[in-house]
Every structure is written in C-alpha cells, then in structure tokens.
Amino acid sequence: MSFSLTPKQKELLPHLGRRGTKHSLIYGGSRSGKTFLVCYGIATRGLRAPGSRHGIFRKHAVAVKQSIGRDTFPKVMKLAYPDAAYKWYEQDGVFVFGNGSEVWCAGLDDKERVDKVLGKEYATIYENEASELSYDAHTTLMTRLAQNVEATVGAPGPLPLRNYVDLNPTTQSHWTYRLFVQGVDPESKRPVNRQDYSYFVANPVDNAGNLPPDYLESLKYLPEAKRKRFFLGEFSGDAEDALWTRSVIERLFVLTDKDMPDFVRVVVAIDPATTSEAGSDETGLIVAAIDKEGFGCVLEDASGVMKPEEWAMRAVSLYNYYKADSIVAEKNQGGEMVESTIKAQARGAWVPVKLVHASRGKVTRAEPISALYARRRVRHIREFPELEDQMCSFTTGFDRTKAGYSPDRVDALVWAMTELFPGLIEDHSNAVPQFASVAPEEPVLDW
Q1: Which of 139, 208, 214, 295 has the fewest Cβ atoms surrounding its Cβ within 10 A?
Q2: Cα 360 from Cα 346, distance rounded (Å)
C-alpha cells in the first residue's frame, strides 16, 4: 500500500522538527490528521535514535491504549515503515522497536501506572487531546522531557527534545491557548520565550481525502459552538454582551476528593429535553454545591443528548456519588413525567426531588447568577468547556432559533445556583418540593 501524507501534513512536518522550537501545538477540528502526523513524527524519531524513549499521554489510560496503541500508531507503522521491526506490549502499554527504542502510551488517571511511567526520561512527550489535561499535568510531564540520546540515522548527533501537543480547540481560557497562542505563562502571566513555542492549525477539510464523503457535511451543520470547535477549529471567545466572560470564571482545579472544600449542601440540577433524536437539544445536568464560606462550586457537567431514562439514571447516579441533598428539575418540559422517571431509576430508594417552574425568562433567571460570578462567589473545580462556551455566548438578546441550540447547560446551572442561593430570587412560589426532606442548615451569607 502506497503511503503519502496529506498536503497539510507535508506542510506541518518540517515545523515539528524545526531547530530551536521545543514545544509545538497543533489544534483544529475533528479528524484533521493531527494524531496521525504526530505519531508519524514519533515513529521517525524512534527509528532514527536507537534506545530512545517517547511518551504519549492522555487523560484516560483506556482511551490512549484504544486510540493510539491499537489504532493510530499501528496504522502509521504499517503505512510508513512496513519493514520496521516492533512489538506492542498490551499490559505495559509500550511499543518496543527492533533498535531498542520505546514508545509508551499512558493515561494520567492511573496513579500507580503514572508513577511507573514518569519514573523514566523521554526524548519526546506527546500530550494527546490536551483539552482534557490541566496545566499542572503539563508542567509535571515536562520534568521528564530529559533523555539524552544520539541519532544515528539521518542527521547524526543528539536527538533534540520535543514536546508535541494537540487538541480540538476549547476556550480561550485554556492553558494551551494562553501558553502557545498568547505566549504567556498561564499561572504567572509572564511572557514566555516565543522561540520555544509554535502553533499550527489543521482542520477536517485538510484531511478530506481520508474521510467519508458525508462527514464534512455533518460537521458543517452542527450547532454553532460545536461547529466552531470541530469543523472550523477555533478557540471560543466571549460574545460582546454575554452575561458571563471567561475572566469571571474562577477555578479550583481539584485533583482528588481530599482537595474538595467542605460543602454544606449539594444539589443535582436537570433541565430536561423533550426528545433524544439526532439534532435534539441536550438535557442540562449539573452538580453544584455551596461550602461553609458561602462559595458556590460547580462539581460536574454531565449534560448531553439523552433519553429520559438515561438522564434520570445519570442524575440518580450523581446524586449518590456526590451524596447530594436533592435533585432539582425543571417541570416545564414533561411535567410530572420528570418526577416519575427519576423515581423509577431510583429503584425504590428515597431521593428528594424538587420540581421548579420557569415562570420568568431565561435571561431574567440567569442575571442574578451571573452577578454571583462577577462577585467571585462561584468557582469551577476544573474547566467545563461546553458549559463555559454556553455561558460566555449567552447574551441578553439570546435567540434560540438563530443560535441553533437551547442553552440547557446554562439553564441547569441557573437552577442549581438558584437552589443553593435562595435569597437571590424573590419569587419562589413556583418551586414545589415533591418529597419532604431535611436539608443541612443554610449558611449565613451577607449579600
């Protein structure tokens, strides 16, 4: 089988090995050939330098083994280097070449595994799907980019250390945008040495020859926010008259349950969609809490297109996992069906549910919550790209028809925070608790 890179991949390849550039970011839409290109570069480096070691990291071990270990990397070797000797060791998640070079595939969610893998030094570190990785994870990985190894094939001499990063672009507050595009350290806000950092864009149209004919068409007609991310490959900014801006979204970046604040109340909020067909609105599903100091905290965004039994099952699961105090659900869509669906998925367990009715417009309900963010009273435990995209594009004149979607994640967020901060909204006559429940005492807040 003949092998040839796409014109875009041929254009980018020399830049990935450009002298003096240690860190390279490739961002863009879905299935644009980014991962294949970087894996090709890593395979080439491994074959050039006997005994070299290279690491491919992703958030979840299962994902990196499945997408890279069993799929992309073997395809690269079959097409580009069919005569090269190598073997895949599934249990360890490592490719071993005939010349002694190694390519490790690891997820950062397995602490024992990560400690073992990060005990080694690497000549190449590839952060795949970096939208899921924190800046802390990035800086930790960079401490292991330190292997001193000689290249014997091609240009002889020390193999330059390389860090490759790829992702479908998320929000402009993400560390990849700040570090590579803006050229500032995400924590200190100080400028970085621009010569050490480069970034490039690759989109699905650049890989059209390797995609099904109707794939690009399906991306063109996604809702606007997803179209920008997965088709146009653009980082999301803020709408001019949005109720939220990225600058008011505070983050905790909680790594373990031990790092969580002490919460006095936790709720699961649902904004149910009426259908789950292709193109349907999402069901907003948010877990939020309030701590002893009176700060709100977003713990989970589990929203998505789901059937009623699916979102009900997920809501009950989150209620149990976070030891929540109640489930809050909008009853405008589905009425009493919302309650009965949740009760069915609870399978006899007692779950307190409060059904709320949207008697006011979305903007009116959301304004007090956006004011909480402006006063730095709400924090997110990590980045929630889809939720934050909706927040920062939700304007005072939001038009659902023009936008092509309903801001269901924002709606669920608003219901959750309204429940946690009841003093913000004067009219509570439409909030009808369906089960009697004893909640922890409300914190005394000075608004």
Answers
A1: 214
A2: 30
Alpha-carbon Rg for the chain in angstroms: 24
Comparing C-alpha atoms, which of 42, 12, 25 is closest to residue 164? 25
In angstroms, the CA 420 to CA 407 distance is: 20
The three-class DSSP label of residue 68 is helix
- Report the pLDDT value the prediction gives residue 386, as an integer from 0 to 100: 86
Alpha helices in 301-384 (DSSP H): 308-321, 336-346, 362-374
* C-beta separation of 56 from 68 below 8 A: yes
pLDDT at residue 228, rounded to an integer: 83
Spans in the chain with pLDDT lower than 70:
1-2, 254-256, 274-280, 332-335, 400-405, 425-447
Task: Give residue 188's pLDDT.
Answer: 87
> What domains can be seen in the chain, in order of their start residue?
7-230 (3.40.50.300), 246-433 (3.30.420.280)
Q: How many CA atoms lie within 13 A of 92 on its CB side?
A: 12
What does pTM read for this prediction?
A: 0.66
**Residue 357 Cα distances to 91, 332, 372, 427, angstroms:** 52, 6, 22, 11
| pLDDT at residue 280, rounded to an integer | 62
What pLDDT does 348 receive? 86
Which of 7, 302, 193 has the alpha carbon at shortest distance from 184? 193
Contact between residue 159 and residue 101 where contact means Cβ atoms under 8 Å apart:
no
* pLDDT attached to residue 246: 83
Q: How many residues does the chain have?
A: 447
| Token pair 């006899």 in the structure block, residue | 348
Q: Tell me what pLDDT residue 337 has.
A: 83
- Asked whether 61 and 109 are in contact (CB, 8 A), the reply is yes
